[in-house]
Amino acid sequence: MPDAPDFDDLFALPELDAPAPRDRFPEKETFSRVAYQMVHDELLLDGVSRMNLATFCTTWVDDEARRLMNESMDKNIVDKDEYPQTAELERRCVRMLAHLWHAPDPGTTLGTSTTGSSEAAMLGGLAAKFRWRKRGGSGIPNFVCGPVQVCWEK
């Protein structure tokens, strides 16, 4: 659908008279500017990310990082054949993290990217389990952690 005509007041459009759909697609198409405004306005109800003290990672991102994310948003990082340079950057990051964490041979360390801290924590937990198993661990591994990651409840 083409974008909404250049109206003086976006909020005067009839599409913004009703709330955003909650459980099904709307019957008619929606102008992209209207859809953006609906989602944007709903997200205003969230807290201010820069004031988020309930996380252990920063919520501030510099402009260059935002630009790179915007430029790469349409890439499928799982498709290594179609995006070989993205895959190479991922391999570099794995090697750098392996070096940072004193892996025996950072150049041959295996790893992968994740989409969030829960996934990263679960991958780290699996790595610990595999190391435990390789050392001859028996029974159920004892994995002790505090209430930091929601993923452990999963």
UniProtKB/TrEMBL annotation:
Going by the UniProt record, its keywords in alphabetical order are: Lyase, Pyridoxal phosphate
- Which Gene3D superfamilies does the record cross-reference, listed alphabetically? 4.10.280.50, Type I PLP-dependent aspartate aminotransferase-like (Major domain) (3.40.640.10)
- Origin species, per record, is Nocardia puris
Which cofactors is this protein said to need?
pyridoxal 5'-phosphate
This chain's protein is named glutamate decarboxylase
A Gene Ontology BP annotation from the UniProt entry: L-glutamate catabolic process
List its EC numbers: 4.1.1.15
What is stated as this protein's family in its record?
A: Belongs to the group II decarboxylase family.
Q: Which GO terms describe its molecular function?
A: aromatic-L-amino-acid decarboxylase activity; glutamate decarboxylase activity; pyridoxal phosphate binding
Determine the domain of life of the protein's source: Bacteria
- InterPro entries reported in the protein's UniProt record: Glutamate_decarboxylase, PyrdxlP-dep_de-COase, PyrdxlP-dep_Trfase, PyrdxlP-dep_Trfase_major
Recorded catalytic reaction(s): these are: L-glutamate + H(+) = 4-aminobutanoate + CO2
The lineage, from the top, is:
Bacteria, Bacillati, Actinomycetota, Actinomycetes, Mycobacteriales
Give the CC-aspect GO terms.
cytosol
